TrEMBL record:
Membrane-crossing residue ranges in chain numbering: 211-232
Hydrolase keyword on record: yes
Pfam families named among the record's database cross-references: Glyco_hydro_108
InterPro entries: Lysozyme-like_dom_sf (IPR023346), TtsA-like_GH18_dom (IPR008565)
GO molecular function list: hydrolase activity
Name recorded for this polypeptide: Glycoside hydrolase family 108 protein
UniProt keyword Oxidoreductase, yes or no: no
TtsA-like Glycoside hydrolase family domain ranges (all copies): 11-93
Organism: Tianweitania aestuarii
């Protein structure tokens, strides 16, 4: 179990939460290191934005532990799974993270981490703010996935010369993700090209009945939707490949 891993998980999360933010499209409003003004006022009634900007490290840790770590039962989760669940909870609420974890739980800890992060990112795509924050979310979730898998592999690795080693396993994940990204990218461009080439011109349509025209339109729309999906998945897997390569290097250096 990963008892005492709160500090490590919080450090990873804070690296993505950044400092002060007050984006007009962010429903959370004014935020400092991931803590919204509304949340801060539950701890410090009547607090101002200036107070939030100057939040102390002690208060920050108390908030994250009480509002996110404890609700997702972080101390009961395996190393790596705790990070993926905690970071998800910070973004989407601990109840959502915990519920999704229970849905994907199973197999090795590394497999659970991968399934949870995939489910998390898939749900984010449906958000209205995806266009604004999608790229940042993709970088964050894929990095958390790779870090969580790395922690899981290191924690579960046997002492007597594991084969493959955690670093080798991470490199293999990176290669697999890069290969998948290439296939999806090629498939996306092919689908888009096929859709564009299959659109009937008015001259052709003159000889088609209305039903056939509707069917053709449906095929074109479906091909375009497939192309968009494949290209999106290709982008995600490219980021996963980058993240896994980075984590493999960290593990090899002994810093994991």
């Amino acid at each position: 179990m990963a008892v005492g891993n709160f500090a490590n998980c919080l450090n990873v999360t804070l690296a993505y939460e950044g400092g002060w933010a007050e984006h007009p499209k962010d429903p959370g409003g004014a935020t400092m290191k991931g803590v919204t003004l509304a949340t801060f006022r539950r701890w410090k009634p009547g607090a101002t934005k200036t107070d939030l900007r100057n939040i102390s490290t002690e208060t920050l840790q108390k908030i994250y532990r009480a509002d996110y770590w404890e609700p997702v039962k972080g101390d009961t989760l395996a190393r790596g799974v705790d990070l993926a669940t905690f970071d998800y909870g910070v973004n989407s609420g601990p109840a959502t993270a915990r519920k999704q974890l229970l849905k994907v739980l199973g197999g090795t800890d590394a497999e659970t981490v991968k399934r949870l992060c995939k489910a998390r990112l898939s749900s984010y795509q449906s958000f209205k703010t995806w266009i604004t924050f999608g790229k940042g979310w993709t970088v964050r979730v894929t990095a958390v996935e790779a870090k969580g898998v790395a922690w899981s592999l290191v924690a579960d690795a046997p002492v007597d010369a594991p084969t493959p080693s955690p670093a080798e396993a991470l490199k293999a994940e990176g290669i697999k993700a890069a290969s998948t990204a290439k296939i999806q990218g090629n498939g996306g461009y092919a689908s888009a090209g096929g859709a564009g080439g299959g659109v009937a011109t008015p001259t052709h349509a003159d000889n088609l009945d209305q039903l056939a025209t509707w069917l053709l339109a449906g095929i074109v729309v479906g091909a375009i939707a497939l192309a968009v999906y494949l290209l999106w998945r290709s982008h995600i897997n490219k980021k996963r490949a980058e993240a896994y390569r980075a984590e493999a290097a960290i593990v090899e250096s002994g810093a994991a």
